[in-house]
Amino acid sequence: MSSPAQAVSLKRTPLYDLHRELGAKLIDFGGWEMPVQYQGILEEHRAVGERAGLFDVSHMGELEFTGPGAFEALQGLTPNDVGKLADGRCHYSAFLTERGTFVDDLLVYRRAADSYLVVVNAANTEKDFAWARDRAGAEARVENRSDDYALLAVQGPASPAIVARVVAPDPSDLPYYGFRQTEALGKRALVSRTGYTGEDGFELYLAPESAQEVLRGLLEAGRPEGIAPCGLGARDTLRLEAKMALYGNDIDDTVTPWEADLGWIVKMKKGDFLGREALERQKAEGVLRKLIGFEMTDRGIARHGYAGQTPAGPGVVTSGTHSPTLGRPIGLALMPTAASTVGTEFSVDIRGRSARARVVETPFYKRTREVPA
Amino acid sequence: MNPDDRHYAASHEWVRVDREIGTIGITDHAQKELGEIVYLELPEVGHVFNAEEEFGTVESVKAVSELYMPVSGEVVEINKGAVAEPGIVNDDPYGDGWLIKVKLSTDQEVAKLMSAEQYAEYVREEEKGK
Predict the structure, then answer these.
(1) Among the four A40, A346, B16, B84, which has the fewest Cβ within 10 Å?
(2) Which residues of B touch A36 (CB under 8 A)?
C-alpha cells in the first residue's frame, strides 16, 4: 500500500465545506480538490442508474462569446455547425488544432444570436481561453467567466421529478440538449438537459453564492427518491459505460475526431473551420487508428497508458475501469484500424502480465430514457 | 478498531502470528483508502518472499496498489474466497478478508512492526500530513 500524494494549493469549488460535511473523500483532480466519492463509487453509480445522483462539477470552465462576431468566431473555431443551433439549444463540439486534433472537447450553448456560453474541461480552461481569445477576431468578445459559475449535475431516471421541485417553471419539458435561463429556489440559474453519465439529467449553472443553498435544496427534494451525492469516481465509471470521451485520457492534441469515433461533430458542409483541411486529408487517406471499446477476457483492469498488442500492431489503453453495471473490466483503447472491428482479440500488458481482451460494441451499456424530442 | 493480537507495517498490512504461521492482510484504514476492491492478485503457494517485497496487488475501482510483505516467509495458503469475492476485504479486513498465510522464515521480524496502538498513532500522523 502506498500513501496518497500530498495536496499542494489546490483550487476549491464554492461547495468545498459542504463536501466535507457530507463526508466526501477529496482528491486532486486537475488542480482542483474535488470529491472522488462519498458512500462509494459502486453505490453512487447504482444510485444514478436506478434513482438519481447529484454532482458538483463547478470546476468546469465557462467561456462567454458575445458581440456581432461571436457566431462567426465559434463557427470558425469549432467543427460542429453553430448555424444549426437555435436559441436555448446547445451541442457537443470541440476546439481543434490546425492538425485537426483536440485542443479540448466542449459544449456550445446559444443564448442569443450574439451570445454563447462555451463549457470546457477544468484543466484546460486557461489554455482554451487564451487559444480562443487569440483567434476570435475583433468583432467577438471572449471572456473567461469560470469564477462566476458553480455547476451542479442531477443525473438519473428520477432527476426530472426532483428538479421539478427546485427549478421553476418545471424544466422537464426541456428536450435533450435544450436549456433555459430560469430560477432554482428563487436564484438565477441556467438549466440544461445535459450530463456526462449516459443517463437522463439536468445541469444547473448557478452564481457561486447560490450553489450551497441549491445543492442542499436538491438533496432535500430528492430524499423520497433516494438521491445520492456523487463524486468524480462514479462520474468516470458512468461516462465510460456510455463511451463518452475524457480529455487527457481518450482524446488530446494527438487525436482527431475521426480517430476518436467522434466524426459526428464534424460538419464539413458548414464551411471553413480551424482543422478542416487536416481532417479532409485524413478522411481521404483513411485513419490509421481508432478508439475502440474493449472487455477483458482475463482477470484485471487495463488502465490508462497500458500497452496493447494486436494482430495488426501495437495500441494503447486510454481508459479502463471495473464496470459496475456489467461487473467486469471494460475500457477504451486506440488501436490500429485493422484491429478495430468488434470481436478482434488483443493482449494488454498489465504491470508485466499479459492479459487477453476483446473489442466489443459500444456503448457498453445503453440506458433507456424518455426525453421530449 | 485494529485488533491487538497482530503486528502492523507502515505500508498498511497486518500479520497475525500463530507459532510459525503468519496470516497476512490489509488494515481497515487501507481498505477505506482504497474504496471498493474489485480485484486481488495473490502469489502462488510455495513462493518465498523477503520482508517488504511486493507479493501482489489490490485493485479498487479507482486505483491499483501494491501489497508488501510485513515479514519474510513461504506462501502456504492464499485466500481463494477473497480472490473470488474481493469485496470481503472491505467488509472484514481483519477476519474473512485475510490474504495469504506464510511459513515465517524467522521469528525476529515481527518485533520491528508496530503494535495496534502504534499503528493507530501512525495513521493519525499520516492523516495530519494531508
Answers:
(1) B84
(2) 62
